[in-house]
């Protein structure tokens, strides 16, 4: 196996024996083959100039397939094999319907067993591209598209689609098979991926807010009650909605974990008396937190950490693209409806959660809420009460080096504000950082996809202050990344013209030295240094 798509990749060069994430060789190879099958479909769509608007089922299966291959989303070899078979069936039907007569291997290869899949996968993975710069750019595009696919899938679940995003996914994936494209062509395509990243995040923002209302300032309880309970993790708000509807009046409470915390900020979910609070921290802390929670856990997306004990594994359920061997995956019917009764019944028989902390955290500062406070914010900037904003969005992770972000937040001068989104926030959202004239010093917009809100806020401030360039704003970007959704967020920011983003705790292992050089020279991207040096640099920039 070879995988270097996430920040925790072994030695920052690649996982080759087993994933640091827990992914084994078989799963890694099946994921490679699934990506290759998606490239095959994309090739057919592009070569036959098929309109993506006509490909309803295929569009959706392509999103799901790419989502399955995101870090920590799906560890279930059987589920991935089933998806490969499904996608190859769709690919072959598409080739027939469109009279595709090309011979690109991804569009025509066949496999008839797990063994043949694994053998085929060995020759189509990341290392199949020999030139390291071309490989680096192809993978950068693919990882961005994986993140885009995840966000587009959530929007799809709410009934919002944009055919141009599907068309771009086919264009981008097909381009990674095209040996005639130069490094410059692929750099241009990387920026185009960022352009579609903005579209995808805007679509999801529109989907979430049109269905559930605009996030608003909310104090979220982090303590527990004495009722049996279900913990829901991941990013999908339609799953959140269905779980709350189905648990209503059953005596079973619902808590969020990790990236589901921002569900509390949406007006539509506030009416449920059994929606109690957030339990624990970011994804990698689940190992201990799931033990003390006692009740069943529903994963709606990544990030799954392979459970350490059969007792915890026996309480895990997945849905959508998420999967773990031996843990039931709750399917959707043709209308997207899911039956969570097995989870609810299990919860009723289990003890209530142990309390691991008490108090509350405040969030809900997505674009609409911030714009409602715009006058106050602008006055504070004009008066000098706020010197600088720090966008510290992105992901959290296990590495000790991420303590940097807690220290960075602690040591920032008291006239600065942190704008956050994604699970990166757990490194500082429980610190007592105070407020500036009533504006909290940590403003949480929501999930990683809500980094879109931070971009909207920046563009609005640019307009209010009458600036020509978003880089003239007193905003610094110190972003933490882990998996491929952070890649699309980064590409989206680059597309919007944001410069001098610092990215940590390590620069991606999949960037070859030459590609890294382009990003440094063109966009001023840099890694992180010491907390003291970085704060000094940003405050004087
Ligand atoms: Fe955090 Fe994991 Fe949000 Fe990522 S919970 S690293 O999936 O997408 O961010
Ligand atoms: Fe390694 Fe990350 Fe790939 Fe897992 S997803 S195998 S940790 S690079």
TrEMBL record:
Keyword DNA damage part of the UniProt annotation: no
Co-factor requirement: hybrid [4Fe-2O-2S] cluster; [4Fe-4S] cluster
Cofactor binding note from Swiss-Prot or TrEMBL: Binds 1 hybrid [4Fe-2O-2S] cluster. Binds 1 [4Fe-4S] cluster.
Catalysed reactions, semicolon-separated: A + NH4(+) + H2O = hydroxylamine + AH2 + H(+)
InterPro entries the record matches: HCP/CODH, Hydroxylam_reduct, Prismane-like_a/b-sand, Prismane-like_sf, Prismane_a-bundle
Gene3D superfamilies associated with the record: 1.20.1270.20, 3.40.50.2030
Subcellular location per the Swiss-Prot or TrEMBL entry: Cytoplasm
Cysteine persulfide sites (modified residues): 395
One Gene Ontology term, aspect cellular component: cytoplasm
Residues annotated for [4Fe-4S] cluster binding in this entry: 3, 6, 15, 21
Binding site for hybrid [4Fe-2O-2S] cluster: 235, 259, 303, 395, 423, 448, 483, 485
GO terms (BP aspect): response to hydrogen peroxide
Enzyme Commission number(s) of this protein: 1.7.99.1
GO molecular function, one term: peroxidase activity
Matching PANTHER family: HYDROXYLAMINE REDUCTASE
Summary of the function given for this chain in its UniProt record: Catalyzes the reduction of hydroxylamine to form NH(3) and H(2)O.
Family classification: Belongs to the HCP family.
Protein name according to UniProt: Hydroxylamine reductase
Species of provenance: Lacrimispora celerecrescens
Gene name as annotated: hcp
């Amino acid at each position: 196996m070879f995988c270097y798509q996430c920040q925790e990749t072994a030695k920052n060069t690649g996982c080759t024996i087993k994933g640091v994430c827990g992914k084994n060789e078989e799963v890694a190879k099946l994921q490679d083959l699934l990506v290759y099958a998606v490239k095959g479909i994309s090739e057919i769509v592009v070569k036959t100039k098929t309109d993506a608007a006509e490909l309803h089922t295929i569009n959706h299966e392509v999103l799901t397939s790419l989502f399955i291959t995101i870090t920590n989303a799906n560890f279930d070899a059987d589920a991935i094999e089933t998806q490969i078979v499904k996608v190859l069936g769709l690919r072959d039907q598409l080739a027939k319907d469109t009279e595709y007569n090309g011979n690109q291997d991804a569009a025509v290869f066949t496999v008839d067993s797990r063994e043949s899949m694994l053998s085929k996968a060995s020759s189509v993975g990341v290392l199949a591209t020999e030139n390291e710069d071309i490989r680096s750019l192809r993978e950068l595009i693919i990882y961005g598209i994986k993140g885009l696919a995840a966000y587009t899938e959530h929007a799809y679940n709410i009934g919002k689609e944009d055919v141009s995003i599907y068309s771009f996914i086919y264009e981008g994936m097909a381009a990674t098979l095209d040996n005639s494209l130069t490094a410059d062509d692929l750099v241009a395509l990387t920026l185009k991926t960022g352009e579609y990243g903005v579209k995808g995040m805007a679509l999801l923002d529109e989907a979430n807010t049109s269905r559930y209302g605009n996030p608003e300032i909310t104090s979220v309880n982090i303590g527990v009650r004495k009722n049996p309970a279900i913990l829901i993790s991941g990013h999908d708000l339609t799953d959140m909605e269905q779980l709350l509807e189905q648990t209503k009046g059953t005596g079973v409470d619902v808590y969020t974990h990790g990236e589901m915390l921002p569900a509390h900020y949406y007006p539509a979910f506030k009416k449920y008396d059994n929606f109690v609070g957030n339990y624990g921290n970011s994804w990698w802390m689940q190992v201990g937190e799931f033990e003390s929670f006692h009740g069943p856990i529903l994963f709606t997306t990544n990030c799954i950490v392979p459970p350490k004990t059969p007792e915890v594994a026996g309480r895990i359920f997945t849905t959508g693209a998420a999967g773990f061997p031996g843990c039931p995956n709750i399917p959707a019917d043709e209308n997207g409806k899911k039956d969570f009764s097995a989870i609810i019944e299990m919860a009723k028989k289990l003890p209530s959660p142990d309390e691991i902390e008490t108090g509350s955290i405040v969030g809900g500062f997505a674009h609409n809420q911030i714009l409602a406070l715009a006058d106050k914010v602008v006055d504070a900037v004009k008066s000098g009460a706020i010197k600088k904003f720090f966008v510290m969005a992105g992901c959290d992770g296990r590495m000790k080096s991420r303590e940097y972000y807690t220290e960075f937040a602690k040591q920032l001068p008291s006239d600065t504000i942190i704008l956050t989104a994604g699970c990166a926030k757990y490194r500082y959202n429980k610190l007592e950082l105070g407020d500036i004239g009533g504006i909290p010093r940590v403003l949480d917009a929501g999930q990683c996809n809500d980094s879109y809100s931070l971009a909207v806020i920046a563009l609005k401030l640019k307009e209010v202050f009458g600036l020509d360039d978003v880089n003239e704003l007193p905003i610094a970007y110190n972003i933490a990344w882990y998996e491929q959704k952070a890649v699309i967020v980064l590409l989206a920011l680059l597309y919007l013209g944001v410069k001098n983003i610092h990215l940590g705790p390590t620069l991606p292992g999949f960037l070859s030295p030459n590609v890294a050089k382009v990003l440094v020279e063109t966009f001023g991207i840099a890694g992180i240094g010491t907390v003291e040096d970085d704060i000094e640099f940003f405050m004087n920039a």
